[in-house]
Give the backbone structure.
Amino acid sequence: MTRASSTYVIESADGGILAPAGFSASGVAAGIKRPGRLDVCVIDAAAPVAAAAVFTRNTMAAAPVSWSRQAVSDGTLRAWVVNAGNANACTGATGEADARAMAEQTARLLGCAPQDVGVASTGVIGVPMPMPTVGAGIEAAIAALGSKREHATQAAAAIMTTDTFAKESACRVTVDGTSFAVGGIAKGSGMIMPDMATMLAFLTTDAPLDAEACRAALTLAAGRTFNRITVDGDTSTNDTAALMASGAATIVDGAPITVAHPAFDAVAAAVTHVCAELARMIVRDGEGATKLVSVVVRGAASAHDAEAAARTIANSPLVKTALFGGDANWGRVAMALGNSGADVDPDRVDIVFAGIPTCTGGTAVAFDEDAAALALSADEIELLVDLHLGEFEATVLTCDLTYEYVRINGAYRT
Amino acid sequence: MTRASSTYVIESADGGILAPAGFSASGVAAGIKRPGRLDVCVIDAAAPVAAAAVFTRNTMAAAPVSWSRQAVSDGTLRAWVVNAGNANACTGATGEADARAMAEQTARLLGCAPQDVGVASTGVIGVPMPMPTVGAGIEAAIAALGSKREHATQAAAAIMTTDTFAKESACRVTVDGTSFAVGGIAKGSGMIMPDMATMLAFLTTDAPLDAEACRAALTLAAGRTFNRITVDGDTSTNDTAALMASGAATIVDGAPITVAHPAFDAVAAAVTHVCAELARMIVRDGEGATKLVSVVVRGAASAHDAEAAARTIANSPLVKTALFGGDANWGRVAMALGNSGADVDPDRVDIVFAGIPTCTGGTAVAFDEDAAALALSADEIELLVDLHLGEFEATVLTCDLTYEYVRINGAYRT
């Protein structure tokens, strides 16, 4: 079966999560984090709308993940309530009750059903939620809801933990003479790894998606972006990426956008665009990272091999410390490749650091160490491996492993 | 089928790899490493004897691994020639020829067939072997062979790379009124991980093992020791653990020890004893490590689950940095557990840091943070996880992740 797909144009836009029409947001300081730091965020679509979310596969999934998984299962949500500073993970029955209470309070104040409210939490694991503080924060956040630029900014700030900058992205898509927007915010800088990279991300669009199109667009986008980044190979208990579609934009034919609609590809591309920008910011902000590294594996015998090889290289502490040291240590890349399980012919492997061939046909190539050191001192690097066995390719974004990573994580909780 | 197994006593012994009778060894400074550091080692059994070896599963296995795999395939070897400073890995056809040349030269000087000589190399990857230097080293090492305490010490030193101390172990076993010895040396402090942990280890015994018993004893011992340690989750291209049995000790009944012999269990236990000591030294010397950590998972529903859970926890950078920080951060342990793929009931998990319960039945237990910090400041710690789902248990040794790890690996090659 073939399906018509319209030509579209995607342009970056300002406005973050409020770039699309039909949403309000807020971020307030409740006191869950250090005093004065924003830590409770609400995103409101004003009425139940088409919604989708993907979650961590960690079997110790946190209470808010359990709550939100069932809340979004009918394909609609009205709002998300999010807190930073406490993950409400490994908190047992109390944690489940606390997540539900957050949804119930938000629903009561907004005037909707608790099942229309998604809940997400991020922060320390294993500590019961300070519910009076959280409750006061939710009340303040709902009172503060608005649709100005500053509201989007505050929402982005309120979901941060060890992040060093807020992560916002938005774009505008023109398709078949109409236009709609996609916006998003994200947090994440540690516990980042493939298979629902550890992070929270909330996206909005005013495109009139039905629930299935919403889910399909998010799933496609997450698979190509958030699931292709890694900071430390650890996957958190709280990962959540979510999309709500307000339908406030109208397209020419007036019909809802289904997965069969000619504009669906434009929607999926725009959601992927925003997710890719947010994913890139997350890796860029990897705990202690000094470099953003694209690990590209091409010439693999299968898609699985390409991805396994790229992920294993991107997760290797020895590769990541070499990148920190500005060392074109292709031997460690070869070692990681050999551990990946991918089909490899050792005599055909090429390894290129930042444009500099270091290994061709499995053996060393003489290269100028000074030129390599200079190229590797850039803050964005491509590490390319060509297996010369087939047509498959995969890219995983990673960062270097630094003293600062050890400092941040050796002293996070205490 | 039941099998008789004799009662035995194992006692630690001095002498390292030369504790068993029938071997000579040496370590010399050839100049592959920095001038003056020992870097070529030969271990000689004086005649072809029963031998076994296990190797890395990395598909980019180095040339000496390919050579030694076939050399030992008939169950006999006379000698090992080992160099440090260059791994002869990712060196293509030249590397294969160099490994063979090392065996051929050693065989010529000892007066045996090249197939009776195992070759092992460790050091930088992807650089051709400096063969004139290596050849001179082999000649000197064979001229220096001897059976005194100092020869064992020199052999242990000559296989070191980033190791901060030489690793030797030996024991004496008494069984059925006779006694024999097992000795060994090892190197390794980075690229250490399960599935043939990255390392070299050479063991000797004077027990009269046949080839099958030699292989069985080594395989059992490696599975319980070297394959249960991890420093950074990376597996090298050169891992080799080997055992030679000189037969110089005679046991009461005069028969060779087969796997069915009543003394076989004593042999396997003694080989395991030496491997366990060497494995422990390797983790203790993990690059930059300040703590030796035993991750014990018990109450698992299967052996596979117990091992997967212990390995995932032991490899998590977030757990390892928390251990460095002396932080009883059981939430990160729960996170890693949830990523391990093991069956887990989140409401039944207990987590105990250095004897201090921090999580019981999946939720936090109040504990004295000062007492925990004190307990975690010890240089040997047990991290215990009880899943309360079954009878299976596994232990993986690991170390903490420190600034020093980043320093060593950020500046290793350059």
